[in-house]
Amino acid sequence: MDFSKIVREHQSLVFSLAYHMLRNAASAEEVAQEVFLRLYQDRARISTDEHLVHWLRRTATHRCLDILRRPANRPHLDVTELELSSEPKAVDPFMDRTLRRLVSALSPTARAMIVLRYQEDLEPREIAAMLDLPLATVKSRLQRALVVLRGKLAREEGPSYGAARA
Amino acid sequence: MALLEPDLSRALRRKPAPAGLAERILSRLPREAQRDREPYHVRLRLAWSFAGAIALCVGLGVFYVNARRIERRNEQARQQLVETLTVASRSIVRAESKAFTAAAWGRMKERLAHTEASAHDEDEDAPMHSPAPSPRI
After folding, report:
1. CATH of region A84-166, choose from 3.40.250.10, 2.60.300.12, 1.10.10.10, 3.40.50.1370
2. Mutual orientation of helices A3-22 and A93-104 as an angle, nearest 10°?
């Protein structure tokens, strides 16, 4: 398969994964470039499309975790976060922004789990395989992360969050 | 919890890549690929140098062996020539010696004959008691 086609097809996956984890467009782009350059070097080992997607998710996630675990490279709020994206007007953009901010406050591993679960729609079993963690650990940490997010959201949005949405 | 999940899915949905990201990635590829290939080029250059050194050694060895072979052949030819010349020289000396001896014998025989003839003539003319001259060789 043509490598430029692979890049164009999967750039959004890698960039978005990195962006939601790092919350910085420049860092996310740097990660995306690194991931695709590594893919170019290792492309002979990739056999199928599923393998390719798995490889991209895994490499991007681990690269972001490496960056997040370095104290000097803690992500900061990106200015692009302030601009309104092409989201439908019916949804609350402030809610989305608040949620992304709260996700970025989670620990790196929990953040990776949440992003893989809700951006890539992966099952806990797949997340466990990707992060080299036991399935039970992934399930419990996902559960805990959701509880934390819900608690923080309730504090920020008020206790009416659940009721209003219901 | 169920309420939060759709919100999370929406908030964390895939964000489109910035414009020109693919081009920026692809523009870095040749440089990166070149950097990766550098060790290969170095290895190739080393391999060529090594092969060149081996070829040079083999060439020099062949040249040396060949030179030694030619030198030995020349030496044999020289020795044969010297031997031939020695044999020829000996033959010439022997033939010359024979010729000289034969010539000397010839001259001696001639003188003897001459002397005998002279003595015979003198015997007929001179008194009996005069001594005959000794032959000169």
Report:
1. 1.10.10.10
2. 80
CA distance B40 to chain A (A): 14
Q: Is the ipTM of this complex over 0.95?
A: no
Q: Across the interface, do B26 and A95 touch by the CB < 8 Å criterion?
A: no
Residue B72: C-alpha distances to residues A129, B61, B67, B82, B83 (Å): 78, 16, 9, 15, 16
As a whole number of angstroms, the distance between CA A36 and CA A33 comes to 5
Cβ contact, residue pair B28, A8, below 8 Å:
no
Structural domain spans, chain B: 38-124
Q: What is the pTM for the complete model shown? A: 0.58
Residues of B in contact with A25 (CB under 8 A): 18
Stretch (H or E) spanning B110: helix B21-125
Cross-chain residue pair A29–B4, CB shorter than 8 Å: no
The tens digit of pLDDT for each residue in B86-123 reads 999 999 999 999 999 999 999 999 999 998 888 888 77
Domain positions in chain A are 1-82, 84-166
Instruction: Please report residues of B whose CB lies closer than 8 A to that of A11.
Output: 17, 21-22, 25
Q: Which CATH topology does A1-82 take?
A: Rna Polymerase Sigma Factor; Chain: A (1.10.1740)
